Amino acid sequence: MPRSSPHPRPAPGRAAGRAGPRRGRTGRGPGARGSEQPRSQWRKALSGRLLRRTLLLTVAVCMSYAAQISMLTLMPTILVARGYPISSSLWFTLVMQSGSLAGAITAAFFASRFPRKKVLTGGAVLGFLAGLSIAFLATNIALIIVFGFLFNFSVIILNTTIWLFAPELYPTRVRGMGTSIILAMGSLSGGLFPLVSGVVFDASGLTGMFAMLASLFVVLGIAVQFPPETFGKPMEEDPVAVL
After folding, report:
1. Which pairs count as long-range contacts for 103-108, CB under 8 Å and 24+ apart, including other chains?
2. Residues 6 or more apart from 156 whose CB is under 8 A from it?
3. What pLDDT score does 168 carry?
4. Could you tell me the sign of the dihedral formed by the alpha carbons of 56, 222, 60, 238, in that order?
5. How far is it, in rounded angstroms, from Cα 229 to Cα 27?
6. What does the pLDDT read at residue 59?
7. Which residues of 13-47 are buried (b: 16+ CB within 10 A; e: fewer)?
8. How many CA atoms lie within 13 A of 204 on its CB side?
């Protein structure tokens, strides 16, 4: 018969369990710090120093969207009212809208070469001059198309640059929320302002409507002077986000 050992062996795994490291009950470790960070809150984009940036960019994008959508939706009606057939009016509007593509390409080129506020100021000046030219100098369809092209060219430079500028004005955790607020307000302006433009056109014609649209670029040009310049600077980070 086999002899039993005077010193009984421990149950399998018991010694290893005693010798091994104990796991914490809370699950905290080196990666737990990120899970303890507070979530982004939309209120932060509407308080303190960020409130001023949000309001200024909201004003700018509302002016830009109002001018763009008013031009886009009402120009065929305006041309028909001036005696052009509906099919020709749509083609003329399409040619004018090609300025939008040129404006987007130009804005992308400027993005890595010029400060945001200078591009926005230049676009506002060009949009103002194009609007006044349509109002007071566009005596034939050729001039309407040329000045309309420049109008759309400038407004898309503004829109594209604003969407480059806006995220750069916010720290990491509120960047998306702040930009979303500005986008929502711009879309609201683009939806409502053409109603105003239509009323002005009925009352004052092409001259009155585009004089009003030109004034929007003045407001935009003033609003973009006050946020801090971000070109060539690192994007702002939240203190907690870099821990």
Report:
1. 103/152, 103/153, 103/154, 103/155, 103/156, 103/157, 103/160, 104/156, 104/157, 104/160, 106/153, 106/157, 107/156, 107/157, 107/160, 107/161, 107/164, 108/160
2. 68, 99, 100, 101, 102, 103, 104, 107
3. 92
4. negative
5. 43
6. 96
7. eeeeeeeeeeeeeeeeeeeeeeeeeeebeeebbee
8. 13
The pTM for the full model equals 0.80
- Residue 79 makes CB contacts below 8 A (sequence gap 6+) with 88, 89, 92, 93, 141, 144
Give me the DSSP letters along 56-112.
Answer: HHHHHHHHHHHHHHHHHHHHHHHHHHTT--HHHHHHHHHHHHHHHHHHHHHHHHHHT
The model's pLDDT over 2-59, given as tens digits with 9 standing for 90+, comes to: 444 455 555 554 444 444 444 444 444 444 444 434 444 667 777 778 888 999 999 9
For residue 69 the two structure tokens come to 């959508």
Which residues of the chain have a pLDDT value below 50?
Answer: 1-5, 13-40, 240-243
In whole angstroms, give the CA distance from residue 13 to residue 9: 11
Closest by Cα among 154, 151, 108, 114 to 131: 151
Among candidate residues 210, 226, 195, 204, the one with its CA nearest the CA of residue 54 = 226
Tokens of 153: 């060219």
